[in-house]
Amino acid sequence: MNFDFTEEQLMIRDTAREFAQAEIAPSTIERDIKGEFPSEIVKKLGDLGFLGMMVPSDFGGAGLDTISYVLAMIEISKVDASVGVIMSVNNSLVCYGLEKYGSPYIKEKYLIPLAKGEKLGAFALSEPEAGSDATKQKTTADKEDGYFVLNGIKNWITNGQSADYVLVMATTDKSKGHKGISTFVVEKGTPGFGYGKKEDKLGIRSSDTSSLTFTNCKIPPENLVWEEGKGFNFAMNTLNGGRIGIAAQAIGIAEASLNAALKYSKERKAFGQHISDFQAIQFKLSDMAVKVEAAKLLTLNAAALKDAGKKYYKEAAMAKFYSSKIAVECALEAIQIHGGYGYVREYLVERYLRDAKITEIYEGTNEIQKIVIARALLDEN
Ligand code: CAA
């Protein structure tokens, strides 16, 4: 495996880094406190091509590889993990799925504006009683007069109230279990499509996490993605790529924690010397650096396999599992190194911990990732 980045990959990383510092960092703290969605920033991300990074240019995207996407996600999430998840969902779960499985009509009508960043997408799989156990979809899509009529509730939907187009998983044939689930593109404003509450969260507070309601919501048959009964496979296949995005988001948080700890330890003095001179602190810094590096390698490996058109679902689960775990660990250590200052808002590291925690939960909890990894191992051996 060769991880010498190309000129183009480095350019994308640097562009993301500069954009994050100049355009995102100034408002991060205020948006976190207020729980305010970064609409202007999302628009600028679209102008940069960061909302449809891996979509070919024919469909309005930037035509880049998954490695570039990972590098950009790390830089954006280092500064603001809320912006990271908004970007990740649009790229990995929405654009990727529509590009791979959408009809020419869907690509023309929905993928192009989503990839250009003119519209924002959301992915609605989870329900009040179907989180980890995602096959237990209660939302129904019954056929009536040539339409699909949606009824049900979706929970924890990233970009929920902000999205123009939502990919909704619903049961079209209950008797077939997960093979009776289908995916639909639902436009904001469709009669019968409404919103429940917007969640007041521990972390990633400036992202929009909402519940969605569907009451006799009529969807035209051309908005069916892939085929009837393929909705669960659609969700699983797109989530494999999504897990690479969330791994990159977690790495961004972990690296930000390490950087903050390095800076602070060289400034703070105790017992007559900088705290960076104490082995107790040096060991923490070393542990954090090793973890960040290992997480990057796991994630780049999954991205490289995806780019090579090889099987990558086990590696994506490993990358997401490990990166999210170490993001929490690194944020906790950064707080410990900061002492009391780490516990107050002024010093950023408390936000890193709040933001890191969700990476162990969404797009499949870490317990689910272990199931995916174990099943792949057992299949292979
Ligand atoms: N990749 C591709 N296909 C997969 C897959 C994967 N990683 N995992 C399962 N599948 C396929 C299986 O091959 C099987 O397909 P066929 O029937 O065609 O053979 C089908 O899915 C059912 O699989 P299982 O029999 O293994 O089903 P299960 O119920 O025992 O386990 C599960 C499935 C792995 C637990 C799955 O339900 C799962 O991944 N749950 C987690 C759901 C999740 O990640 N939710 C995230 C919500 S979205 C989100 O968070 C986005 C956001 O807003 C940030």
Short précis:
The protein is of the alpha+beta class and 381 residues long. The chain is built from 10 helices and 10 strands.
Please render the helix and strand layout as text.
Layout (H helix, E strand, L loop, with lengths): L6 H28 L4 H10 L17 H14 L1 H21 L2 H13 L4 E4 L15 E5 L2 E12 L6 E7 L9 E7 L5 E6 L10 E11 L4 E2 L5 H37 L1 E2 L2 E2 L4 H29 L5 H26 L10 H11 L6 H15 L1
Parallel strand pairs: 1-4
Antiparallel strand pairs: 2-3, 3-7, 4-5, 5-8, 6-7, 9-10
Helix pairs in contact: 1-3, 3-4, 3-6, 4-5, 4-6, 6-7, 6-8, 6-9, 7-8, 8-9, 8-10
The chain binds acetoacetyl-coenzyme A.
State the domain count: 3
- Helix run count: 10
Based on CA atoms alone, the radius of gyration comes out at 21 Å
Ligand types? acetoacetyl-coenzyme A
Spatial gap, N to C terminus:
23 Å
The number of E-state strands comes to: 10
**CATH superfamily (homologous) name of the largest domain:** Butyryl-CoA Dehydrogenase, subunit A, domain 3
- CATH architecture descriptor of the largest domain: Up-down Bundle
Low-confidence stretches: none
What proportion of the residues is helical, as a percent range? 40-55%
Mean pLDDT: 97
Q: In CATH terms, what is the fold-level topology of the largest domain?
A: Butyryl-CoA Dehydrogenase, subunit A, domain 3
Oligomerization state: single chain
Order of helices and strands: HHHHHEEEEEEEEHEEHHHH
* Strand-residue proportion: 15-25%
